[in-house]
Amino acid sequence: MNMYCETERLVLQVLPTYYNRQVLQFFEENKEHLEPWEAKRDKNFYTPNYQKLLLEAEYNQMLHKKMLRYYLFLKENPERIIGSVCANNIRYGAFDNCSIGYKIHHVFCRQGFGEEGVKKIVEILFTQYGMHRIEAMVHPKNQPSIGLLEKIGFEREGISREAAKLEGNWQDMYRYSLLQKKEETII
Questions:
Q1: Which of 68, 73, 89, 173 could form a disulfide with 137 if both were Cys (CB 3.0 to 4.6 A apart)?
Q2: What is the pLDDT of residue 185?
Q3: For range 38-59, the mean pLDDT
């Protein structure tokens, strides 16, 4: 597992637990921006201790290749978290698939950072984790996220009915997928 990697403009890093306050700051600054698209937060979510425990739990899952989360930093400002990209529900064997999610700080939206981060984690999932299929769920009203997925090459497969409980109500979600393209051998 790569704990650190780079793109043209970003540093992607798996964070140790002592980054809990920076992670908390990211979520506090983006509460209004992110919460409409995510499940209800635990009552202690916005505390340093919760974020520390979450970073520790995620790290343990990453050691077993069950998930992968990179926090995004600008190369020119490596102190401030501007987002994250995550793969979870990683399954091997007959499936070799996973789900991805991503979050971008509201100040840095629509500048291509989400696309850059998602492309990098997709590359890692296909080349280092051996994934065949990557899925993403997105709310039909989340047009920026839909645009990001489609620009990268994800294809909409359909609607997952009442797939996520958001803001207290079950919501339909679009289901997208991206398949690893294998080069065909010519005999």
A1: 173
A2: 47
A3: 94
